[in-house]
Amino acid sequence: MYRFLLSRQWVIITLVALLLVPTMIWLGFWQMDRHDERAARNQLVADALAADPVPVERLAAPGHRITRTERYRTVTAKGHFDTADEVVVRRRVNADDEVGFHVLTPFILEDGRVLLVNRGWIPADGPSQTAFPEVPAPPRGEVTVEGRLMPDETTEASGIKDLEGLPDRQIMLIDSEREAERLGARVLGGYVAQTAPEPKGDVPQRLGDPGKENAALNYAYAVQWWLFAAAVPVGWVVLVRRETRERSRTAGEETGAEETEPAAV
């Protein structure tokens, strides 16, 4: 009755089913790994945002690379802004997906070291973005700023290509080591996305809180792949049973036809 399983068509169907099951199971575990990674990153961000503010000198130093656990930590710094060496970061968007600049202003600490402060987003003056935009001035004199500690930007992490030959006082990526060379100063690693004090006007627009990755979606995908894996053998059995019934019915019809056929004279 089941000799048809040795036919070429059914051998191919069976082999495909045998390959699909472990593949789908592996894809389910891969999605669970993605879920765990995203959940862990979300927890790191939540822990960093919930931590009490600390002086930036406790976490950052010249040449120091900001770690995963230090990223998004709220830090404070006391000193004054140096607008003479201020630069803007090109091709940055705000919450409304409008293209403009981020304002990067050196902040001179009390001990003479420099902290890079991203004061927020401003619109571009024109579509070319070649002219240095009009930048609102920061508070004058000694001030205490607060913000989220961020690592240096890279093309690999941001997807932004570091172009050369840019207009004066414009950069593509925030790199503390490169800024240290430009300023000829001891610059703390990474930078701070300023959250306080608030600007007097609407700009620079403060950078939004870090987004939360949708880890639950990966969990749903994992369950989906495992359900598919379970459905494959069930579907194979259903197809075999249907094929068996059709072959039995066909065989019965042929037998009945032979029995009712009149004998030759």
TrEMBL record:
<feature type="compositionally biased region" description="Acidic residues">
    <location>
        <begin position="255"/>
        <end position="265"/>
    </location>
</feature>
<keyword id="KW-1003">Cell membrane</keyword>
<feature type="transmembrane region" description="Helical">
    <location>
        <begin position="12"/>
        <end position="32"/>
    </location>
</feature>
<keyword id="KW-0472">Membrane</keyword>
<dbReference type="Pfam" id="PF02104">
    <property type="entry name" value="SURF1"/>
</dbReference>
<dbReference type="InterPro" id="IPR045214">
    <property type="entry name" value="Surf1/Surf4"/>
</dbReference>
<feature type="region of interest" description="Disordered">
    <location>
        <begin position="245"/>
        <end position="265"/>
    </location>
</feature>
<dbReference type="InterPro" id="IPR002994">
    <property type="entry name" value="Surf1/Shy1"/>
</dbReference>
<feature type="transmembrane region" description="Helical">
    <location>
        <begin position="219"/>
        <end position="239"/>
    </location>
</feature>
<dbReference type="GO" id="GO:0005886">
    <property type="term" value="C:plasma membrane"/>
</dbReference>
<keyword id="KW-1133">Transmembrane helix</keyword>
<protein>
    <recommendedName>
        <fullName>SURF1-like protein</fullName>
    </recommendedName>
</protein>
<keyword id="KW-0812">Transmembrane</keyword>
<comment type="similarity">
    <text>Belongs to the SURF1 family.</text>
</comment>
